[in-house]
From TrEMBL:
Keywords: Glycosyltransferase, Transferase
Signal sequence range: none
Domain of life: Bacteria
InterPro entries tied to this protein: Glyco_trans_2-like, Glycosyltransf_2, Nucleotide-diphossugar_trans
GO molecular function, one term: glycosyltransferase activity
Name of the protein: Glycosyltransferase
Coiled-coil regions, chain positions: none
Record bears the keyword Glycosyltransferase: yes
Length: 294
């Protein structure tokens, strides 16, 4: 089973070199890498990828800038195999990532979503654990070894707080094509996709073997859209939709978690100091609205 590694690119060249290098270093050779350049202004990163002498590495440059969601949709269009990961161009695979997820799928072929173990690195590549990731660790399901979750239990947990690390997740290609990345969800597209799969009966396989490094830094989309409140407007819309779907499905705990969206409210509250420092009244108003919204 070949793993398609789709890597949308718009960012730092040094981070891209690390990300691509981590794929090339995989101990399991059964992978295919496609870097999709969303018209990054500097041609040097694309030229570097295109010059890599490995038939498994492919470079595509979009004709026009598609934006975050649009480039994810382009990634899905280019998938060729049954399983795929949409890896961040600033993240790093550990050398055993492909081997680990292939073993997990072989043992649990019915899992729609495979979430392996992840550590978090900063802009310079040092491992750290900021508050957001400590909260993720607290909310995430406990237990040891590979374990599967589905239905209301999984939906309730993800709606309480999205503890998954999207760029590390291995997906079924058929699910990516079927549900895709919806218009209007540029920042919370990962949670929207997971909820679509879960509400339709798909499950998640969770494992603790750390084989991926997720980079959390100030230039990420979620970080940039935090103080101005933009991502929270998306989250509020998604939670309202999820509450209605959970109610229709007869999942009262999931519906309550969606309506409460407690960790999302606390996250908005934590962004208020930045909005105050930026003298951004619109951002401050948007954040306060999310904190008190029903």
């Amino acid at each position: 089973m070949t793993i398609d590694i789709m890597m949308p690119f718009y960012g730092r060249f040094d981070h891209l070199r690390e990300a691509v290098g981590s794929v090339l270093a995989q101990t399991d050779p059964d992978w295919r890498l496609v870097v999709i350049d969303d018209v990054y202004p500097d041609p040097a990163p694309g030229a570097w990828v295109a010059a890599i002498d490995d038939p498994r590495v492919h470079y595509r440059r979009n004709a026009v800038n598609l934006g975050v969601g649009g480039n994810f949709r382009e990634c899905v269009r280019l998938i060729e195999h049954e399983r795929a990961v949409l890896m961040g161009c600033d993240d790093r695979m550990h050398t055993g990532y492909v081997a680990t997820v292939r073993e997990l799928v072989a043992a649990h072929p019915g899992a729609a979503i495979v979430q392996p173990g992840v550590d978090v690195i900063d802009a310079e590549g040092a491992v750290h654990e900021p508050l957001a990731d400590r909260v993720k660790g607290f909310i995430r399901f406990g237990g040891t070894g590979p374990r599967e979750f589905s239905g209301e239990k999984l939906a309730t947990s993800l709606l309480t707080g999205n503890w998954a690390y999207f760029p590390s997740v291995l997906w079924r290609a058929e699910d990516l094509r079927r549900y895709g990345f919806r218009e209007g969800f540029e920042v919370v597209q990962d949670l929207a996709l997971m909820l679509d799969i879960v509400f339709d009966g798909g499950g998640m396989l969770l494992d603790d073997t750390v084989c991926f490094s997720y980079r959390r830094h100030a230039a990420s989309v979620s970080a940039v859209t935090g103080p101005d409140g933009a991502k929270f407007a998306e989250e509020r819309a998604l939670f309202a939709e999820a509450a209605a779907r959970a109610k229709a499905a007869g999942w009262p705990r999931a519906a309550r978690a969606a309506r409460a969206h407690l960790t999302s409210r606390l996250n908005a509250l934590s962004e208020l100091p930045a909005a105050l420092r930026a003298h951004d009244p619109a951002g401050r108003k948007a954040l306060l609205r999310h904190v008190v919204s029903r």
